[in-house]
Amino acid sequence: MEVSRVIAAVLGLQFGDEGKGKITDFLSGMFQVAVRFNGGGNAGHTVVANGKTYKFHLIPSGSLRCETVVLGNGMVIDPHGLAEEMDKLTTSGCSSHIIISKMAHVVTPMHKILDTKEESVRSKLSIGTTAQGIGPTYEDKYARTGIRMVDLLSRDTLMEKVETIYRMKESLLASTEFSRKENREAMVDELYRVGQRLTPFLEYTELEIFRQYRKGKSILFEGAQGTMLDIDFGMYPFVTSSNALAGALSLGAGFPFRKVDYVIGVAKAYMSKVGSGPFPTELEETQAARLRDLGHEFGTTTGRPRRVGWLDIPMLRYSIMMNDVDALAVTRLDTLGQMDKIRICTAYRKDGKEIDYIPRSFQEFSGVEMDYMDMEPWGKLAQPEGGYTFSALPAALRKYVEKVEELLDIPVDIISLGEGRENTIVRDTSVLNSQAPDTREHDPIP
Ligand code: IMO
Ligand code: MG
Predict the structure, then answer these.
(1) 440 inside domain
(2) Which of 73, 213, 229, 312 has the lowest CB atom count within 10 Å?
(3) pLDDT one-digit tens code per residue, 319-351
(4) What is the predicted pLDDT for the residue at 93?
């Protein structure tokens, strides 16, 4: 029997906020299973479908259309936040079957306070985290004191673990509400209560993913964050506390990477970043303010203004290599075109010589210069009746896309020109035309 399923991954190639939510939702119509495998409430994925805006932090953006939705073991989950998101999804008429890994780690209110406390200790080296408790929860995971989703089922286990974490982190927590045992007990009661609610959804999700795979279902793995926020390969220490590279899906969901057919890299047509750390192509403030306003570049999770910069080709080249990307989805071209001047960074130079690596420390960055290429702006796009087509786009925009393809030697298969599924052009339909059955009839959104 011919196997018709497609196993694909959608990943961010920059500093996060590339538009993964939109691209994932767009593609999800041809997949039956959506899987998140890393991060937690630090992710902020916006999906606009049929005129309604959905903001997801924990639930995969493919949830609106996929039958089965998986929150993998590699995630760190605030169970209260998750319960709220699940409610919102149900209210919106979505009936996907959600399953949560028993082995995913639990973010508690204590971890969120620890996140803020750790930032103040870091002082000059503060990261500008989203204060969602991500770092402290992964710390506990690797210290082997972490609370897993399955632990929510036992109040005693929860209390033991909370007390252990408290003892380990007492120096940071002594000045907080959690120094009082009754407050820790109250937190445990709340966690236990929400755990009762989530019990029916807890599974060994890796087994379910395999079951779906054996049934021939198409599976979409959705990355959170981006390559430059990856704990190993990003701009350490200004990174998140998990891996964001494609390979992370194997460990964060328990699915062998060799079975992944297709990797789609999402890149914004310019760059944005929240938090501190090196940002080679960052714009000076006047221009940055303009681009930030045009693109409404304020964090989905924190509301913070995002730093913005020109497209960084050397960085993308690295991300494409590290994730083994097959094709790009480029977002926000509608925004970029409205700048008076547009540039692309084409190379990094040190002592006049081009370098083939991305420096990963401030010291290494000193003396590095960027080569830029000027591109022609294409202005505000008029939305044609019947939707966009590539050939009808302004010549300057097409040239930008073709230049990106030429510099990176990879096809830009998907172009996003605004929120909403309709503002998307698929240039090469190889992935969409694969023999995977179209599940659009399952679309639960009215
Ligand atoms: P999505 O999935 C943008 C950034 C934070 C901070 C650093 C560490 O929407 O692309 P953390 O709270 O993870 O300890 O913060 O990483 N960061 C993100 N920036 N988009 C995200 O997710 C991010 N997740 C983390 O701003 O600089
Ligand atoms: Mg974000």
Answers:
(1) no
(2) 213
(3) 999 999 999 999 999 999 999 999 999 999 999
(4) 86
Ligand 1 pocket test target in 25, 240, 242 with most atoms within 8 Å of CB: 240
pLDDT in tens, 229-272: 999 999 999 999 999 999 999 999 999 999 999 999 999 999 99
pLDDT, average across residues 360-378: 95
The dihedral region occupied by 51, where left means phi > 0, alpha psi between -120 and 50, and beta the remainder, is left
Which of 125, 130, 141, 332 to probe ligand 1 with, by most ligand atoms within 8 A of CB?
130
Same domain for 243 and 286: yes
Is 45 assigned a catalytic role?
yes
Q: Catalytic annotation on 151? A: no
pTM of the model: 0.95
DSSP one-letter code for 146: P
**What whole-number distance in Å separates Cα of residue 70 and Cα of residue 310?**
35
Strand-strand pairing, 412-416 and 353-355: unpaired
Domain boundary among 154, 179, 200: 200
Rounded to an integer, what distance in angstroms lies between the CA atom of residue 219 and that of residue 294?
A: 35
Q: What gap in Å lies between CA 264 and CA 36, rounded to an integer?
A: 15
CATH of the domain at 239: 3.90.170.10
Measuring from each residue's beta carbon to the nearest atom of ligand 1, which residues come in under 6 Å? 12, 16-17, 42-45, 127-130, 132, 134-135, 224-226, 229, 238, 240-241, 274-275
For residue 310, give its domain range.
7-95+204-433
133 and 76, same domain (yes or no): no
Is residue 315 within a helix (H) or strand (E), and if so which, with residue range? Answer: helix 313-323
Query: What is the residue whose two structure tokens read 């080569």?
Result: 371
- Reported as a single tens digit per residue, the pLDDT across 265-322 is 999 999 999 999 999 999 999 999 999 999 999 987 788 999 999 999 999 999 999 9
Q: How many structural domains comprise the chain? A: 2
Closest Cα to atom 20 of ligand 1:
16
